[in-house]
Every structure is written in C-alpha cells, then in structure tokens.
C-alpha cells in the first residue's frame, strides 16, 4: 500500500495536480489497487477529517481577516507603522515589515498578510525609488510572519492534528514572531543603506499619536483574542467568532468603511479561502489515515531513534527535513501529514509538543519564501509586476536570517516557551 500511495502522489505532483487533489487521488488509488478496503472509506474519512470543533476557528478567522481588511485596517496599520519607523534609512521597507506584524495579529494567514499589506507597501516603495525585486522580497518575508504571530491557522491545524493546546501554541508564537520581524527590519536597514535608498522625514510625535488612535481598534483585536483565551473567557474557536463580531462592529460602527453591499463579496472571498484549506485537510486526513494504518509514523520514529540518541541532532535532522519539504508542499498539507509522523519521535525524546509545534510552523513558513511553492513570493511578485527571477537575489538575505532565528528558537526553548509557561497554566 505504501508504495502505491507514494508513487501515485509523486505522479500527481509531476503532472501539476493541485496538492489537495493529489492527496485525494493517491489515497483513492491506494484503497482501490492496494487493499481490500471499500472506497466508501474515503468518503467517510473526508467527513471525519473535518468534523472537528477546533477547526471551526479557520473559517471564522478568515472571515474576520477579510472584514478587517475591507474596513480599511491595512491602510491604517501602514500609516501607523510609517509614522513609527518611516524616517529610518530604508524606512518604507521597515514599515512593510512592521505593518505585516500588526496585520498578522488579525489575519492568521501569510498569504492574506502579504496581499493586504503588500497592496499598499510595494507600490509606495516603488514610487520612492526602491528596486521592485527588493520591495517584493521585503513584503514576502514580512508576510510569512502571518502564520507565526497569533492567531495562526497553521497552529490551529497542528493543535487539532496533534492534540496540542492551541492557546499555548498562540502564546508561544509571540516572541518568535517579534524576533523574526526585528531581524527582517535589521536586514532591510542594511540592504537599504547599501543601496542608498532615501529616507522619509520624521512626521513627529503628533503624527504617531494620530495614526495610533487611527489604528487603535485594529491593534486591540489580537489583545482581545489572546486575553480572552488566556483568561479562560472563551476557547480559540469561540475567539474566532468574537473576532468576526468585533470586525463587523469596527468596520460598520467605528471606521464606517464597511457597507452592507460589501458583505456578499467578503463572504465569498472568505468561503473560497476556507474551502481551499478544508478540502486540503479532508483529503490529507485520508492520506494520513493510510500512513498510520501502514505504521509509517512508527517506523520513522523507530528509525530516527536508532539513528541518534541526541535530541539536538534529532532536531537538526527534523529541521532540514521541514525546510526541504516546505519548498514544495503547502504548509497545511505538510502539517497534517507530518505531525503524526514526528510527534511519536519527539515524545520519546522528551521534547515539548508546544515548542515543537511552533518550530514546525516557523520552518514551514520559511518555505513560503522559496520556489516552487513560495506563495508569499508569488503574491509579492504579482503586486510588484515582476518575474520570480527578479526577486531571487533579494530574498536570500531574508531567508538566511529567518533560518538563523529558527535555529536559535530550536536550541533555546525558552524563547518559545517563556510566555506559555508563565501565563498558559
């Protein structure tokens, strides 16, 4: 069965079939030609794979992100970030990263983060004389933080698949997200200084105050979400519903940029995004069930345990594996398939699953900046109207610094675990 499963999957990848369909086709082919199990099992697993209360957070967080974006949130966040750091050398590049970090606390998705902020930041950088490739690279790197700073849809998926506390995962993503964001800003400063890009004038503390109050309601949203989860007021799934209600109140009553007529388009966009992720989860659940039935996770765990007795070396092997897989497989699919494979291994080595989950999500987020499946790269290139080849030399320094932070996070667990251990109970 295993041979048929992986050969079928490889064939689907070669002919360019979307990942969700590739997983489904490979699974059905395996059931049909490699076992005596009925094909009705595939339909059953499609349903049970998505029949999960925590997974309901995904459509609600996506809808909340669409509501906040349509309500003028990304522009206000950009204006506040510009008032804060726009006067530094390469300031607009830093603004792109800071605005992406702010928006990460709303969207939970890297693609949404890159698109929402990039639509404003990339044209602004180009108008100021920044090279298009550099502008696109900065925004693509900043957008990848969207799955690290909570709320994070990949963290929800990991929590559901691995039976790990989603609330603790959210708390664990804060410091890593800030570290990566700060590192990207330093790289942006160095590259902009070397290229001689102009800096904007300091707008003054009055502008900072004005733009802060303009973005206040957007900045308050992640605080409400995490405060409610931390205080035991609501679960992560219920927090997603709160985020939707909050987005509507802000958009209609406070910023007043949302109109009733905008809702059908917003709901449609959120539905399309949600259906893409949920179909992937459904088909991946069949794939994962077959892997488990064939004892692939247990065999991989036994192999790695026999290969090394060092947790440090084990982590190094897993990181290399994740960084490679992240280049050609979508993050959600990778999490659904690989989480059951790696969790038995890390349990044997005494590694905290919350720490591992944040590391895994971060490693796969780096894959969003690498071809052939670098979704953040493609979105940024499309906005900047350039070919992928024009961004390659600019993205490399950002990739290197993100991998560096990932390694530090891996071997200094306190970076991830300080907030969950202190406040997560």
Q: Could you give the order of the helices and strands?
A: HHHHHHHHHHHHHHHHHHHHH
How many distinct helices?
A: 21
- Residues in helix, %: over 70%
Number of domains: 1
Summarize the biggest pleated sheet.
none
Shape: globular
Oligomer: single chain
Low-confidence stretches: none
Number of extended strands: 0
Cα-to-Cα separation, first versus last residue: 43 Å
Describe what is shown at a glance.
This protein is mainly α. The chain contains 21 helices and no strands.
3D architecture notes:
The structure is a single chain. By secondary structure, the protein is mostly helical. The protein has one domain. It has helices spanning 2-14, 19-34, 40-50, 57-70, 73-85, 91-107, 110-127, 132-143, 153-162, 166-172, 174-195, 205-230, 236-254, 263-293, 296-307, 311-325, 331-348, 353-366, 375-384, 392-411, 414-423. Helix 4 runs parallel beside helix 13 and helix 18 packs antiparallel against helix 20. The model has no long low-confidence stretch (mean pLDDT 85). Keywords: Cell inner membrane, Cell membrane, Membrane, Transmembrane, Transmembrane helix. It is found in: Cell inner membrane.
